[in-house]
């Protein structure tokens, strides 16, 4: 009998972290490596937020808080939902966790029973299926290819719903594709959901603020208020405020679900870091000016990467609406052999050969449930991006 649990054998470690680790090892060994595999902004946390955390420490605000968040932060979150999403939540409907990740796992653990199905449009953020498995449910990936802009269509959603479907996980703009749903596109999905009252919506709005051109973000309960009683609206400070290491995520939803999530959190991690909560109050209530400034840089980098990758042989890169990822198709490179003598049969082969032979780290599409593609994160300097895309272009030109 194994010492380790059966549940553990159902999940795999995060492939994005594995790729980043491999890149770090090569770098430590002296190789010139450009990492485009990590999912975090390269910008620093804004000073006003850091100062709020320092002030909290100095004022002795260093003790436990309520398990799912202190009142000041819950108020700031309610105000944010009202101001930016036209959603009205009371503090009792708010849960604050250690990153968006904890909010998601709390919600799934609080609701899934064996056999319950969770629809996950693919490509998906790597953690969704494994979190569903850890919680005892059945992930049901639903392929959404480049022909629909990597977006779920109402027809595909309708066909995927079964009597066992408990949740749809919705993520716009998306990690890994950057695809964002317009109001009209989302409205059509909500019309399907209205016909299936047993399906709940877990919307991951983590990249809400990272949108470019004239794209307008919207969230399911805002687009269709009739879905509000069965929607968990999840968000966090990690991406928009460059606060990945502070570990604060939050959600608004029905009181019964929020209370169930609190029960789990109170018996696992208790409250998220008190100092980070004070920093997040400032993030949400303070100036938002740097978001627009950062987005100018992100948009410039997106355009640079899309244009350079589309010049590489065998790569086809759509222009996404948001986040800081692009998800180019690399089918034209497969079946060929690299200069280093590696036969590229899969997108994983492509990524490994690219890293070994050029030092550029990207993540293979199979990790996100849709091949053949790679995810390129452009949350790094323009110079590094130009260098990386040039190396990718040379790598593709060398394939035979
Ligand atoms: C789509 C998506 N949701 C949730 C998260 C988790 O965010 P956090 O770092 O706040 O746990 C991430 C982080 O990569 C993400 O990309």
Major sheet strand order: 2-8-7-6-5-3-4
What's the mean pLDDT score? 96
**Through-space gap between termini:** 49 Å
Which stretches of 5+ consecutive residues score pLDDT under 50? none
Distinct helical segment count = 14
Helix-strand topology string: HHEHHEHEHEHEHEHEEHHHEEEHEEEH
Structural class determined from secondary elements: alpha/beta
Give the percentage of residues in beta strands. 5-15%
Helix content: 40-55%
Overall number of strands: 14
Q: What gross morphology would you assign? A: globular
Radius of gyration: 21 Å
**Largest sheet data:** 7 strands, mixed
Bound molecules: pyridoxal-5'-phosphate
Could you describe the 3D structure shown?
- The structure is a single chain.
- The protein is α/β, with parallel strands linked by helices.
- The chain is 41% helix and 14% strand.
- It has 14 helices and 14 strands.
- The protein has helices at residues 6-10, 15-28, 47-58, 71-85, 99-111, 127-134, 154-160, 183-194, 220-223, 255-267, 274-285, 289-310, 347-358, 382-397, and strands spanning 34-35, 94-97, 117-122, 138-143, 165-171, 200-204, 231-236, 249-252, 325-326, 336-337, 343-344, 360-361, 363-364, 374-377.
- The strands form four sheets. A seven-stranded mixed beta sheet has the order 2-8-7-6-5-3-4, sandwiched between helices. Strands 9-14-13 form a three-stranded antiparallel beta sheet.
- Helix 9 (220-223) links the parallel strand 6 and strand 7.
- Helix 3 (47-58) crosses helix 11 (274-285).
- The radius of gyration is 21 Å and the shape is globular.
- Bound molecules: pyridoxal-5'-phosphate.
- The site of pyridoxal-5'-phosphate has 13 residues, from helix 5.
